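The step that takes the researchers longest sounds almost clerical: writing a folded protein down as plain text. The outcome of that step, for a single protein, is printed below.
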Amino acid sequence: MNPDLMQEIAAAAAALVVDEGLEYGSAKRRALKQLGLPPRTPLPDNLAVEAAVREHLAIFHADTQPAELQALRELALVWMERLAEFQPHLGGAVWHGTATELSDIYLQLFSDDPKAVELALINRGVDYEARSVNGLHGHEVEALSLRSRCEPLQTWVGVHLLVNDGGDFRGALLRDAAGRKPRGDARALRERMAHEASVP
């Protein structure tokens, strides 16, 4: 596969991720259409798209993205504190630092009683929608999706709570293909925020 073409697909997908809030998979497929390429064209992996997202942010959104990321991370911390009993771990763009105001917040929760999280939301008067998605280890888990107001951004943000079995926690922090932690708890997120704030 031509590496230049792969890079072009990644760059087109990155623009869709940043500017339209698409997920990586959808963005890659749409990039093929935009570039007039056959549907069976090999696609760049997610790490290549993430690298292109970082480049796109640096070029086009360097003046706005850091504040948007900060606001989303602070909102994530609010929900992590509210749901602390379920060992919440933040993943996705908000954790990795590529989020914009169009990004959603993804929290992995852990509970031996999957209905306990729903009960916690009901007790707080939180409206949510439930569906099934693939969890950390490939089997189906319940995802509870809600909207939360983010005042600094003056918008509503999607918050998705993926409810895993308590026993799945062991594999939650295995490093990804790039050797990074794929998610972190509230303490790790605060440490990451403090570190990034100290870097000029």
